[in-house]
Amino acid sequence: MPAKSNLMLAAALFSSVFVSPVAAQLYTDCNPLNQTCPPDPALGTMHMFNFNATPPEHTFNLTAGTVEYNADTGGAFTMRKRGESVTLTSNFYFFFGKTEVFLKAASGTGVISSIVWSSDVLDEVDWEFKGGNATHAFSNYFGKGVPDWKNGGDHPVEGGVLDDYHNYTCVWTKEKLEWWLDGGLIRTLLPKDANNTFYYPQTPMKLSIGIWAGGDPDAPKGTIEWAGGVTDYSEPHTMYVKSAFVEDYSSGKEYSYGDRSGSWESIKIVSGNSTAFENINKEPEKSLSDKWNELPSGTKSGVYAAAGGVGAILLVALIFYYFKQRRRGQQEAALAAQRLEQDRVELERFKKEGRDPDALAFDGAEYNAKSGMATTAYGLPDSPPGSSAGPPEKAWDPTGSSSAAAMPLLRDDTMSNYRDSPGSGPAPQIPAPTSTSPVNRSFSPSNAPGQMGSSGPQGNGNGAYGGAR
Description:
The protein is of the alpha+beta class. Helix content is about 20%, strand content about 25%. It has helices at about 5-15, 20-25, 220-225, 275-280, 290-295, 295-350, 410-420, and strands at about 40, 45-50, 60-65, 65-70, 75-80, 85-90, 95-105, 110-120, 125-130, 135-140, 155, 165-170, 175-180, 185-190, 205-215, 235-250, 255, 265-270, 360-370, 375-380. β8 (about 110-120) and β9 (about 125-130) form a beta hairpin. The longest helix has about 55 residues, at about 295-350. The termini are far apart.
């Protein structure tokens, strides 16, 4: 390595302890001085970013914290604890240009508010504000990432940097770099004064606005001294930014490095609209009322006509459904009225016959000769059996004569024997009825009346009731 390069490296390492640590905070994913790198997306236009709301989509990246947007105070960059350095960094680059930032710095010893330009080769332009110094702003620059403690400048600010917003502007061309404060020029850098142009910032830049702790206890001693002392994290520290105007003096889609010299002459510009340009100029999502107002009158008339036709169809369908349901309801009401009338007529008939409708009783099951099945029968007896009214009008007559006769009772001892030993011993004898008419004393299924319930115990396999074996 040449002796000059060794000396330069040693000087850089030594001076980095005593100069602003902003350069140490910066990094690059790919340095075009050392390798071929992807192109940088361009801004290719100018735009005022108002931080009363979130910036347009895909224009800035937010790191190490959150920004709270407010219509009156703008974006609030708050550092609440160690490790936070709330920063907005643009997704676009500008190749020579201008920025104007309205900013109120954060208070607090060791707290640094900053406006930084940086390139892939670590060219850099800064505005810095120390929270422990309310009266001054600080300007700085670096070329090719090489720190130089002689590059910084101190500038008094009327009204102070902590209590009010001020306009901090940089204007950058290949001929000169200028720092402006509230519309007044306070510093100018010429290329010949930056190591004969080699350290003059001259490659495409991105914009970063953020707050960080130069006085963090873990920072190098020189950094803590430059920042004004150790940072106190017991309370939050907030920087406010109302707006940032950015103008790209070049127009195009992207910027790339033609060689590894890091000079402005090596930068190639690809023509076309940049992604940032398209995002900034993208029309906001329109509401339905806005879309409707933009329709031609003929289209609106067609929509009205179609809507009217659909409405008419729906109305006809609704009317048809209404009358259909009404007709069904009328039919159901008529059936209900008919059943009610039948119930009324039946109730009147019961009353005329002297019957109590509430006296319905279950009489048991009777045998149906046709089906051979037992069916349930309900009746309305005029009086219960054994009452003073006597037997029913058509009582069973075992003689088969027309004159009614009560069924004789069987002897208890005979039935008891029979129940105890069904199918054995002599068949039970039925006593003679009180009638004088001759009767057949035998009893078999062939001449028995219809039985109720089950057939009862069987004496033998032939179905005879009480027959001999």
